[in-house]
Design a protein that fits this description.
Chain lengths: 339, 312
């Protein structure tokens, strides 16, 4: 097939995806806004908390100024049009524009999530391969029991245990935050950042590596019992050659998909991990926003996290098309494939 | 008569059983192949013909050493005069002994077929050899860059055949290479096997289609319930029931469409419930008390071998 066809196909695909993300975001704004409107949160109360004595008349004036007395639909469209102009509002808690907070916090969270994402992917895939190759033997049984146990353990509990062991008892890692206290931002070294990142990232990686490992194990077992592996053995290929030629090739695809689709769990997990480790990321910000009724920040993070999880799924989808030849290459004789 | 020099594979009284655990630790053995004997000679096609579920594929797996861990094997297999044990199977498989599998599922769906045809060995000669074999099998050169899902059924079949030819093995085991093919395609596949045999290879053709096998085979081993009841020159099978030695072979001949299409009553016994003595006994019109006493030994009768006390 020609590259032109490929381009056209990819073009059609990305158009479809754009439409999909637009509708998804629109739906998210509607639901999120409706939920916040129905909640007993009083934004004026939250606003005046830090200001001091404010009379009822002044409160009413603020409410009127903000348009809180307008019908919800009108308020929604006011908010949406501001959002479309790139104005996400000002955080009541941090007294900073929401966009600035998200940008700043997300960099911290991104470092945390990507580290744990890589860790869980590598550890999970390796463990899964080991278990699959040794299936039914004692090593497989021990690792599998461990994985099942880990996937049932809550993240925050695991984080607390890690803190107790590695930070408090052994003193290897700092107890919290993303950088040392009392050091100017510009003076913080990469090593110090990594040192602060290690324990939360490890904790966060524990959420998903067990499931990656178990899935990889099952897929590898399917592959090793397949006809083509039997044929490879009939041709005198040993286990390592079979793994190199057929094993990884057939197992990596589902593992990658799973890994990219785990962005949502990663985000959910980061909320807990960041709170346990007092790590100043987006997850900590969103729980603070929730607890303090910081409506603008809450809505901003909701939309942002929707976009983030969608990107993960989108990447998984695109990767599948690039890596899997059954999707990438069309049938010969001009027969039309899916799409 | 049999030239001892051309004898490549000699299987004597091969039995394969699977250990099975039933409730608790109670253990039973499932006999899937019992007392099977056959010989494959260089330059000849031996067709192993039998009904589905008679254990034919397991025979191929036993020769190649591919049986699962819970399989138990007894009997003697000799390749080129030397015992064929697990160590030798590892050495010989892929180089001396090649399998032609049944279907496209034996190809890795994510690997280009050229790479699969060449196998794990990577060299310029291997590449050249693969291209030469593809040319010979009329596989167009660009097809080596295709993935299995892009092949037509016939092309996939030829790719599977190419693996055996590229390896230059002396013993080729083709496991049901023809089902689901048009007659012309099947004949084309069989003619490739004939060419290989004529080039001096020993070919074992495992099939349920005696009729088709008769077109190319030199010898027919009649397979029933995990054993060979008769090994006969293909000419005897073509000649008719009088030239055949075993009642089952004769029944098989009569069941062919052009010979009356007559079935016999009963069905092949399951491995869980094998009869005593002759495995064909319960369906045999010649059955006597002697048939139930013990498994009849393989005897040479009129230039063929048969496992029946009545054969003469």
């Amino acid at each position: 097939m020609t590259s032109l066809q490929t381009l056209r196909r990819l073009g059609g695909r990305s158009g479809k995806q754009l439409l999909r993300v637009a509708t998804l975001l629109l739906a998210t704004t509607v639901v999120a806004f409706a939920l916040v409107s129905l909640s007993p949160v009083d934004p004026v109360q939250q606003y005046v908390l830090g200001v001091g004595n404010v009379s009822m008349e002044q409160r009413a004036a603020i409410a009127d100024y903000w348009g809180l007395n307008d019908p919800p639909v009108q308020r929604y469209f006011l908010w949406l049009s501001a959002l479309l102009r790139g104005d996400m509002g000002t955080s009541l808690l941090y007294r900073q524009p929401v966009a600035v907070i998200i940008r700043e916090r997300f960099l911290n969270t991104l470092a945390l999530m990507m580290t744990s994402w890589l860790l869980s992917g590598l550890i999970g895939f390796t463990l899964g391969c080991v278990m699959g190759l040794r299936r039914g033997r004692w090593l497989d049984r021990v690792l599998r029991a461990l994985c099942l146990m880990l996937s049932s353990v809550p993240t925050f509990w695991l984080g607390l245990v890690f803190l107790l062991i590695f930070s408090v008892a052994l003193g290897w890692f700092p107890i919290g935050l993303s950088r040392p206290i009392g050091v100017a931002n510009a003076d913080v070294t990469f090593g110090q950042r990594l040192h602060h990142l290690a324990l939360p990232a490890l904790t966060l990686s524990f959420i998903s590596f067990a499931s990656v490992a178990l899935h990889t194990r099952q897929k590898l077992i399917d592959v090793l019992e397949s006809d083509y592996v039997l044929f490879a053995r009939a041709r005198g290929e040993n286990t390592w050659t079979i793994m190199k030629r057929h094993g990884f090739r057939n197992v990596i695809l589902p593992a990658l998909t799973l890994q990219f689709a785990s962005f949502s769990e990663l985000f959910g997990g980061s909320v807990l991990a960041e709170n346990v480790f007092s790590y100043p990321g987006l997850g900590a910000a969103v729980s603070a926003a929730g607890l303090n009724s910081d409506v603008p920040l809450l809505l901003g993070v909701t939309i942002f996290s929707t976009l983030f999880v969608f990107s993960g799924n989108l990447i998984a989808d695109i990767l599948y098309g690039v890596i899997d030849p059954r999707i990438r290459e069309e049938r010969p004789h001009g027969q039309s494939n899916r799409d | 008569m049999i030239d001892p020099l051309s004898l490549l594979l000699d299987v004597q009284n091969l039995s394969v059983s699977f250990r099975r655990y039933q409730r608790g630790l109670a253990q039973t053995n499932l006999n899937v192949i019992s007392d099977l004997s056959l010989t494959a000679r260089a330059g000849e096609i031996l067709a192993v013909a039998g009904a589905s579920g008679s254990g034919k594929s397991l025979l191929a797996h036993a020769i190649l050493g591919l049986l699962p861990a819970n399989a138990m094997l007894s009997g003697v297999m000799r390749y080129d005069g030397q015992p064929l044990n697990a160590v030798r199977q590892k050495q010989l498989c892929g180089s001396e002994i090649a399998l032609i599998p049944q279907s496209v599922t034996y190809l890795d769906p994510l690997m280009r077929v050229g790479d699969q045809a060449r196998g794990a060995e990577k060299s310029a000669e291997r590449m050249e050899r693969q291209r030469e074999v593809f040319r010979r099998l009329e596989l167009p050169l660009p097809s080596e860059r295709l993935y299995p899902f892009q092949l037509s059924g016939g092309m996939a079949r030829r790719v599977l055949f190419s693996t055996a030819i590229i390896s230059d093995a002396r013993l080729i085991i083709a496991d049901e290479p023809t089902p689901g093919m048009h007659l012309s395609q099947a004949m084309e596949a069989l003619s490739i096997l004939r060419e290989l045999a004529d080039a001096g290879k020993a070919v074992i053709l495992i099939t349920h289609d005696v009729d088709l096998a008769l077109n190319v085979a030199d010898q027919i081993a009649v397979f029933y319930a995990g054993t060979t009841l008769e090994e006969t020159p293909a000419a005897d099978f073509a000649a008719g029931p009088d030239a055949l030695r075993h009642p089952y072979s004769r029944a098989l001949w009569r069941a062919l469409p052009q010979n009356g299409f007559e079935p016999i009553p009963g069905f092949q016994p399951y491995p869980e419930a094998l009869p005593d003595g002759c495995l064909f006994g319960p369906r045999c019109e010649l059955k006597t008390a002697a048939c139930e006493q013990e498994t009849p030994p393989m005897r040479t009768v009129r230039g063929g071998k048969v496992r029946c006390v009545h054969a003469a």
